[in-house]
């Protein structure tokens, strides 16, 4: 019994000691595991730091505030803004492509020529615009699309548009024969011209030159008509009308004061309705009708018919259209003329000529002065200022040769250089601009070379134009917005990367310098 109790005490003591050993061993194992876990955490921290450097994350030197880093950041920001502005400007600007192609204009496509030219010494009475080309086209005295205005020596218009009237291709004269005729007209000069014009209600004057063929053709019929009118209306009794003549080779100043440039020139002076201008010259009419005796007598009778015999000092206005009304037109008030308008020509080499022209007058070429001032000379359709400004936004240089002659003057003095013809040689190229909106704008640019040459006959102003068979095609190329965004992103990333590299180099350099100064060796 006692033995059994002793065994039970020994067994319980063994179990108690064994349990204490197990607890102690467990504590040792747990402590060892915790130590290993701390070591593992430290190793993981070191690995994370190493991985952070190798994975491209922002290094510590870029996260540390420094004066050099702040300056570099400001410079990077300014660089980004500058590059962004340049890219924005490039995106907003318009790029074009230029190509040279053959001009495929159809034959029925005509070229328009606009002009505005002032001639200080060419009378509107005889100024003519003619067009010709290499295909045989020859149009003389174009009036449908051309306007003329009398101008003074200061190039200022002195009245309304000059009425050129219907074009007369042939003027009727008396048959040439050796029949004797007396002197029926009064010879006028500078001394008696004003006096005689004040004594009669109507004075009809023939300004002639003895060397002129047409003056000699007019002379017999003029003297016969003057004699008939004198017999019917005696100047001493009637006093309503008288016919006179002026020799312009003798009375040069008198003819010049009345702007006589072609011979013969028949002028009609009306007393009472005449108004003297600032130079003291009468306003008057020019006669362009037939020159045979019967027509001249009929014209004189129609002029004197409205005037009452008892009132010879007044010229009554008559609104009745007579058979010779179309033969009379107001004479030019000044010696100059401004010619403006346009013509349409074929797209082949040709000439636009401005000269004094008449089928029944002669001109003294030594007295002709073709000095002129070009206000406008251009080819093609008129381009509005708004469209031209849009074109210049695309191509700033375009339009510089669109009106190359505008504002230029070509003045000559007949006393020094007689019979002078002014020639302008023009070479033009068609330019088409295709907008991004598919709007096609057509323009013509040209080069101009001018020269003064001696005229063999009547001086003229000649514009010789020569279109090019090639044309310039300019196409507007718009830019993509996605391309703009891509470039902006590239600018930001590029500047940021370069700034990081520079900051790293600068930071490492400064650390190296400090270590060298402290005497550390590596």
Automatic annotation (TrEMBL):
Ranges where the Thioredoxin domain occurs: 156-305
Membrane topology: Single-pass membrane protein
Primary localisation category: membrane
Family: Belongs to the protein disulfide isomerase family.
Keywords on record: Membrane, Signal, Transmembrane, Transmembrane helix
Ranges that cross the membrane: 67-86, 484-506
Protein name per the record: Thioredoxin domain-containing protein
Keyword Nucleus carried by entry: no
Compartment(s) where it occurs, according to its Swiss-Prot or TrEMBL record: Membrane
Cited InterPro entries: Erv, Erv_C, Erv_N, Thioredoxin-like_sf, Thioredoxin_domain
Top-rank taxon, per record: Eukaryota
Cross-referenced SUPFAM superfamilies: Thioredoxin-like
Cellular component terms (Gene Ontology): COPII-coated ER to Golgi transport vesicle; endoplasmic reticulum; membrane
């Amino acid at each position: 019994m006692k033995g059994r109790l002793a065994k039970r005490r020994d067994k319980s003591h063994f179990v108690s000691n064994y349990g204490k050993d197990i607890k102690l061993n467990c504590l040792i194992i747990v402590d060892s595991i915790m130590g290993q876990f701390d070591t593992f955490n430290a190793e993981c921290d070191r690995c994370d730091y190493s991985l952070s450097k190798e994975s491209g994350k922002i290094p510590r030197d870029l996260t540390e505030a420094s004066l050099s880093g702040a300056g570099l950041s400001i410079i990077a920001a300014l660089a980004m803004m500058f590059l962004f502005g340049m890219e924005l400007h490039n995106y907003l600007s318009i790029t074009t492509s230029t190509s040279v192609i053959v001009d495929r204009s159809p034959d029925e496509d005509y070229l328009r020529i606009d002009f505005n030219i002032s001639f200080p010494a060419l009378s509107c009475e005889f100024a003519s615009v003619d067009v010709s080309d290499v295909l045989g086209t020859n149009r003389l005295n174009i009036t449908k699309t051309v306007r003329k205005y009398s101008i003074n020596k200061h190039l200022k218009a002195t009245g309304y548009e000059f009425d050129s009237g219907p074009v007369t291709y042939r003027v009727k004269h008396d048959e040439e024969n050796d029949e004797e005729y007396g002197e029926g007209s009064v010879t006028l000069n500078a001394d008696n011209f004003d006096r005689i014009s004040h004594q009669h209600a109507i004075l009809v004057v023939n300004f002639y030159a003895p060397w002129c063929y047409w003056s000699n053709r007019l002379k017999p019929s003029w003297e016969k008509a003057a004699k008939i009118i004198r017999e019917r209306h005696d100047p001493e009794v009637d006093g309503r009308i008288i016919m006179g003549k002026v020799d312009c080779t003798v009375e040069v100043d008198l003819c010049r004061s009345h702007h006589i440039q072609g011979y013969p020139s028949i002028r009609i002076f009306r007393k009472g309705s005449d108004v003297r201008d600032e130079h003291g010259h009468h306003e008057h009419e020019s006669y362009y009708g037939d020159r045979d005796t019967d027509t001249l007598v009929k014209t004189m009778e129609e002029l004197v018919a409205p005037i009452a015999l008892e009132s010879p000092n007044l010229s009554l206005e008559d609104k009745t259209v007579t058979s010779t009304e179309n033969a009379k037109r107001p004479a030019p008030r000044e010696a100059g003329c401004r010619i403006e308008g346009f013509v349409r020509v074929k797209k082949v080499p040709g000439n636009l000529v401005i000269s004094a022209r008449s089928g029944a007058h002669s001109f003294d070429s030594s007295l002709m002065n073709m000095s002129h001032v070009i206000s406008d000379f251009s080819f093609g359709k008129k381009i509005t200022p708004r469209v031209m400004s849009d074109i210049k936004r695309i191509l700033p240089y375009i339009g510089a040769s669109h009106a190359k002659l505008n504002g230029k003057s070509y003045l000559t003095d007949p006393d020094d250089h007689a019979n002078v013809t002014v020639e302008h040689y023009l070479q033009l190229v068609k330019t088409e601009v295709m907008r991004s909106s598919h709007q096609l704008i057509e323009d013509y640019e040209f080069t101009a070379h001018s020269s003064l040459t001696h005229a063999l006959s009547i001086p003229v102003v000649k514009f010789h134009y020569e279109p090019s068979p090639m044309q310039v095609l300019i196409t507007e190329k718009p830019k993509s917005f996605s391309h703009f965004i891509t470039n902006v992103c590239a600018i930001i990333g590029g500047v940021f990367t370069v700034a990081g590299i520079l900051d790293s180099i600068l930071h490492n350099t400064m650390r190296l310098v400090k270590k060298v100064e402290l005497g550390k060796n590596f």
